Automatic annotation (TrEMBL):
Residues 26-58 are annotated as: Disordered. This is BMP family protein. Keywords: Cell membrane, Lipoprotein, Membrane, Signal. Residues 65-352 form the ABC transporter substrate-binding protein PnrA-like domain. Belongs to the BMP lipoprotein family. It comes from the Bacteria. The lineage of its organism: Bacteria, Bacillati, Bacillota, Clostridia, Eubacteriales. It comes from Candidatus Avoscillospira stercorigallinarum. Residues 26-47 have a biased composition (Low complexity). It is a lipid-anchor.
C-alpha cells in the first residue's frame, strides 16, 4: 500500500513539474517586454529562488537536486519559511535545483520522501526531529540518496544502515539562552512564557535554556523571573492554538514570549499585538526564531538566528565530494551558526548593552559561570 501511495505521489509530482514548466514557458513568452513581481514562483511549487537584501535571485539548476519536505507552511513567517530559505540560499551558492512539499500531514512524511527519491533527487532535506522514522526508513530503501535531518538526534546517523544520513544539530540550549537573556532583561511582571509545537528533545532543550538564562539574568539584575510551564500544541500549523495559549498565558501575567512552533508562534504574536493594542501601548513582547524577524510584528523585540543555510551547504558540499553521511554537524555560537538578531528600540539602550555583554559571555563560554 505504501509503495502504491509513493508511486501515486511520484506521478503527481511529475505532472506538477511538467505543468510548472509549461506555465513558466508561457509566462516568459507573454512577458518578454515586462518584468514584475508576478514572475516569482508560488510557494506551493518549485521555488528555486532566494531572498537576498530584498531582491530575488534564481538558483542556477545544476547536476544536483535537493528536495525539502515540511509539515508547516513555507510562508508561515517562522520556522517553515526560514528552513525553506536556508535550502534555497544554499542551493543558490552551490548551483543546485530545488523542490519543496510543505504543509504535509505526518502520515505522508514517508511517501513524500520516497516520491522525491524515485525522481532521482540527490539530497532530501527534512527540517525537524519529527521526520526521523520516515527518513531512516527511506534511507534504508534508497542507499544512493542522501538525507539531511535538521535537529536530528546525535545517534540518528549511526542508525542508518547505509550510512547516508547526517544530523544537523543547532545547540538547543544556546538557542534558549539567546532568547532567555533578553526575556530576563525585559520582563516587568517577572513571568515569561514558552509555546512548543511538538514535545521534541530539541524543543525541550530550548525551553530549559530559555528558562535558566532568564532566571540567571533576572537575578543578576535584582529580580526574580519565573517561566510558566511549557505548553505544546501538537501541531506546527495550528495558529488558532497559538492565539488561545498566548491569551491564557498573558492572563497569568506573562509579558515576554518565546516559541518553537512555526505558524503557532505567528498566532501567538497576533494575540500579543491585539492585547497591546487594547492596552494602548506595547508592554508584552515576543522573541522570534530561527531567523531575524524584527519588524514582522510590533511585539517582536529580538530574534534568535540560526544559519541553517551554512549547515545545508556543508551537506551539499559533502554530496558533491562523495563524503556525505554518518555524522552530526553541530551549530553553535562559537562556530557562527547561532547568533542574536537585531534588537528593537523598545529595548532601552542600557538593556541592549547588557544583552550584548551576555551574548559575548555565551560565545566566550563564561555565561552563568
Amino acid at each position: 500500500m505504501k509503495k502504491l501511495l509513493a508511486l501515486l505521489l511520484v506521478l503527481a509530482l511529475v505532472f506538477s513539474l511538467a505543468a510548472c514548466a509549461s506555465t513558466t514557458e508561457q509566462t516568459n513568452t507573454n512577458t518578454s517586454d515586462t518584468t514584475d513581481s508576478s514572475d516569482t514562483a508560488e510557494t506551493s511549487d518549485t521555488s528555486d529562488t532566494a531572498e537576498t537584501d530584498g531582491e530575488t535571485e534564481t538558483a542556477p539548476a545544476g547536476d544536483y537536486k535537493v528536495a525539502m519536505i515540511c509539515d508547516s507552511s513555507i510562508s508561515d513567517g517562522g520556522w517553515g519559511m526560514s528552513c525553506y530559505n536556508a535550502m534555497v540560499d544554499a542551493a543558490a551558492k552551490y548551483g543546485w535545483a530545488t523542490e519543496v512539499s510543505d504543509s504535509i500531514d505526518q502520515s505522508a512524511y514517508y511517501e513524500s520522501i520516497v516520491a522525491y527519491c524515485s525522481l532521482g533527487y540527490d539530497l532530501i532535506y527534512a527540517p525537524g526531529n519529527q521526520y526521523t522514522d520516515a527518513v531512516l526508513q527511506a534511507a534504508e530503501e534508497y542507499p544512493d540518496v542522501c538525507f539531511a535531518l535538521l535537529n536530528g538526534g546525535e545517534d540518528t546517523p549511526a542508525q542508518a544502515v547505509n550510512g547516508n544520513v547526517t544530523s544537523l544539530l543547532p545547540d538547543a540550549t544556546q538557542v534558549g539562552w539567546i532568547a532567555g537573556a533578553l526575556a530576563g532583561l525585559m520582563t516587568e511582571t517577572g513571568t515569561i512564557a514558552f509555546i512548543g509545537g511538538m514535545e521534541l528533545d530539541t524543543t525541550k532543550g530550548k525551553y530549559e535554556g530559555y528558562k535558566e538564562a532568564a532566571a540567571y539574568v533576572g537575578e543578576q539584575n535584582g529580580k526574580t523571573v519565573t517561566t510558566l510551564d511549557c505548553v505544546y500544541t501538537n501541531s506546527f500549523s495550528a495558529s488558532d492554538k497559538g492565539i488561545e495559549f498566548a491569551n491564557a498565558m498573558m492572563d497569568q501575567g506573562a509579558d515576554v514570549f518565546f516559541g518553537d512552533a512555526s505558524a503557532v508562534d505567528s498566532g501567538a504574536r497576533q494575540a500579543i499585538d491585539e492585547r497591546n493594542k487594547a492596552n494602548g501601548s506595547v508592554t508584552i513582547y515576543d522573541i522570534a526564531q530561527p531567523s531575524d524577524l524584527l519588524g514582522q510584528n510590533e511585539c517582536i523585540i529580538g530574534s534568535q538566528v540560526t544559519d541553517n543555510a551554512s549547515l545545508v551547504g556543508l551537506c551539499m558540499e559533502a554530496v558533491q565530494n562523495g563524503t556525505f553521511g554518518g555524522e552530526v554537524i553541530y551549530g553553535t555560537m562559537q562556530n557562527g551558526a547561532l547568533s542574536a538578531g537585531a534588537v528593537s528600540d523598545l529595548v532601552p539602550a542600557e538593556k541592549q548593552d547588557l544583552y550584548q555583554e551576555y551574548i559575548q559571555q555565551m560565545i566566550d563560554g563564561t555565561f552563568m559561570q
